[in-house]
Amino acid sequence: MSAATAPEPGALTTAGIPGGTRVPAVPILQPGEGPIPAAHYLPATPDTVLWGRLPCATDAPVLEISSGESVTIDTVSHEGILDDQGKDPAAYFAAHGVAADDVLVDAIEIAASVARDPFADGPHVVVGPVHVKDAHPGDLVKITVESLVPRVPYGVISNRHGKGALVGELPRGEHNVSVFAAVAERDGILHGTLPLVEGGDAVVSFPLAPFLGTMGVAVAGDERPHSVPPGPHGGNIDINLLIEGATLFLPVQVEGALAYIGDPHFAQGDGEVALTALEASLRATLRFEVIPADAARAAFGEVTGPLVRTPDYLVPTGMDPDLDAAMRACVRSSLALLGGRWGMDEHLAYAYLSAATDFDISQVVDIVSGVHARIREADFAGVPAVEPEALASAPEGDAA
Question: Which residues cross the membrane (predicted)?
Answer without folding.
Answer: none
